[in-house]
């Protein structure tokens, strides 16, 4: 199989994260969600650049899903992340979530769903968690992309060992509700 030097998979995921960025930017500008729209956003709590309270980190050590609907405040969106105020058990919390940390986005009012690969999670866990600026986040993402590219090159040299590929439905990996 030829190697994808352009990395369409990464480009497509970046473009889809851009959809989330655009939607959140519009919500931040107006201060509310139009119509019946509301969002479930799932993100990796261990990802570089994620900032949540220790209490939330203890409750959600790996991933967390937030609901953006009626009660949110101080939504700010940058090129690489968003900040939002939400209440958990009547306690106000500020969350900072890089778009690269998002695993899923769902708007049930129109049945719109996006899911993202987490192939680079292991590499992200190996890196320093004290990332604070957008530039540092961009650098980490670039390093993760480079690691993904080097893995692809290593895999290319491996022998087939006579095994054939197996097609698997993506539905088998989705959570059952």
From TrEMBL:
Alphabetical list of InterPro entries matching this protein: SspB, SspB-like_sf
Domain of life from the UniProt record: Bacteria
UniProt signal peptide: none
Listed SUPFAM superfamilies: SspB-like
Coiled coil: none
Entries under Pfam families matching the protein: SspB
Residue numbers spanned by region Disordered: 143-177
Name recorded for this polypeptide: Stringent starvation protein B
Species in which this protein is naturally found: Pseudohoeflea suaedae
């Amino acid at each position: 199989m030829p190697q994808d030097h352009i990395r369409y998979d990464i480009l497509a995921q970046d473009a889809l994260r851009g959809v989330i960025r655009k939607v959140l930017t519009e919500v931040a500008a107006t201060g509310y969600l139009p119509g019946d729209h509301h969002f479930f956003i799932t993100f990796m709590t261990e990802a570089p650049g994620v900032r949540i309270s220790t209490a939330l980190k203890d409750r959600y050590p790996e991933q967390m899903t937030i609901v953006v609907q009626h009660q949110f405040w101080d939504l700010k969106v940058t090129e690489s992340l968003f900040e939002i105020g939400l209440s958990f058990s009547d306690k106000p919390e500020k969350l900072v979530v890089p778009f690269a940390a998002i695993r899923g986005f769902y708007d049930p009012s129109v049945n719109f769903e996006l899911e993202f690969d987490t192939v680079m999670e292991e590499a992200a866990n190996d890196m320093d968690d004290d990332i604070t600026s957008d530039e540092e986040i961009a650098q980490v993402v670039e390093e993760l992309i480079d690691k993904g590219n080097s893995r692809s090159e290593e895999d290319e040299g491996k022998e087939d060992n006579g095994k054939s590929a197996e097609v698997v439905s993506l539905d088998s990996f989705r959570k059952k509700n």
